[in-house]
């Protein structure tokens, strides 16, 4: 009987101790940026203003994250309906030039232009071109780039 009381007391104290420990939550500070360099490819294949605004904000926010600021290589690949971003009539020229001035690569899929009969002269003259958006994603991912499609 005495052993049963001792075991029961031990279990009771253990559960109280465990309960107290589980109530103390460690402070979460997010992932630690331990590498010297990070690479990210943002993917845009949607021409909705809301989606375009979101991807431009996402890029800006990532570049300003104090953990990776100055360590980040960024490319924005655009294809499909996303071509609206690079259209000379779009309201995004200043934001795109600002991103470019910070080293962001701005790329457009040439397949989209061919399929939609879009002339390069209708797009901003400061963007770059790749043969296919999907090819760019495949290559960059295999090169170790993070791929984000917000």
Automatic annotation (TrEMBL):
InterPro entries attached to this UniProt entry: DsrEFH-like, Sulphur_relay_DsrE/F-like
Signal peptide: 1-20
Any matching Pfam family: DsrE
Keywords, comma-separated and alphabetical: Signal
UniProt-listed SUPFAM superfamilies: DsrEFH-like
Domain of life from the UniProt record: Bacteria
Residues forming coiled coils: none
UniProt-recorded name of the protein: Uncharacterized protein
Source organism of the structure: Pedobacter nyackensis
